Amino acid sequence: MRFLLLLFLTIGLATPALQAQPAPPDTTKGRYHRPLFAQVKVRRNVEFAQVSGLLGQTQPLYLDFYEPSGDTVRRRPLVLLAHEGAFVTGTRDDVVMTELCTRLARLGYTAASIDYRLLFFPFDSVGIGRAAIRATQDMRAAVRFFRHDAAKARQFKVDGRYIFVGGSSAGAFMALQTAYLDKAAEVPAYLNLAALGGLEGSGGYAGYSSRPRGVINLCGALAQAGWLQAGDVPLLSIQGTRDGIVPYNRGLIGGPLPAQVVAGSAVLRRRAQAVGVPNVLRPLRGAGHVPYSFEPTYLDSVFVPMRDFLRPLLGAGAPGPLLAAALNPRRAGVATAALLPRRVQLALSTMLAEDTKTALENRLPRTEQPLPAVLPAATGATEPPE
């Protein structure tokens, strides 16, 4: 009798919560792995934010949105990409970003290539540091824009839980900072973060999270590897081992500017490994900076790892049957309890024997959709010594 009561309680109270939480993306039948869509639809000149320009003027920001033509899926993952250009030049129709967005859309993703604020003055390390903060604010605004749309109008049919960010060179700096620069105290005081609008900026849609699901770093770096912390989102890094612009290991960057020490892809991998952040490093042996921008054959060396990195993060192989916890909590699959609303967990705690309660709490972490601890091809990428 007690068992039946527990079973009915679990079914009755948990079902509404399950209905309110959409299932993860369906990765069967080759979706998100094979180019199932021959045609791609592009919505150009989508305004996603209005921000303060370099001279204080209101500046609109635009993106181009890519989606598979004829797709009937109502919620699709999104990959946001930002172009290279040293925070001085470049546009959202950058040939590499355009190609990557098109290829992603053919797999079934949605993708967006964004513009961001360029130029800075004075032309020194303070100026470029502030430019990097402004550009990161713009990427965060784009994430919030799509999360707002996913919650309201849903004109882009994006699944707000699965928004990834990435970029090339300067765009990769932005993506890395969007994911891992999450404390105002980490920004050097001389950049005057408060005057810039804080970490999030003033791009609108306050209250919506700008935290991505994962990061794609193409030839970028971070000022501090320590910004990567346990519990942060997964990281894919692709970079030439002989990059003479952005160090592959730890080194100086700046060109004509006062040099700054940054942590390149090899250092970020070691840091990610040390703190348990799922990560993939794909070194481009003997290649320099952004080789895919000059030699199209390198694009496959970028796109294939992107494809293989993203798909395991879409929830494939996620929690087992909901009733597993109620029927046999000692042997239930991980994260099943995460699907139970809080009131059900409290009821189970009082009704189950003490040892069963302990098993439920210890075996079933309360995370909505756990990320895999180890990603395919995450290991085996050896690094040249520093």
TrEMBL record:
Q: Cite the Gene3D superfamilies for this sequence.
A: alpha/beta hydrolase
One Pfam family this sequence matches: BD-FAE
GO terms assigned for molecular function: hydrolase activity
Q: Does the keyword Cytoplasm apply?
A: no
- Domain BD-FAE-like spans what residues? 63-185
Listed A to Z, the keywords are:
Hydrolase, Signal
- Please give the residue ranges the record annotates as the region Disordered: 361-386
Where does the signal peptide begin and end? Answer: 1-19
InterPro entries given in the database record:
AB_hydrolase_fold (IPR029058), BD-FAE-like_dom (IPR049492), GDXG_lipolytic_enzyme (IPR050300)
PANTHER family given for it? AB HYDROLASE SUPERFAMILY PROTEIN C4A8.06C
Return the protein name. Acetyl esterase/lipase
UniProt organism field: Hymenobacter psychrophilus
Q: Taxonomy-wise, where does this protein's organism fall, top ranks first?
A: Bacteria, Pseudomonadati, Bacteroidota, Cytophagia, Cytophagales
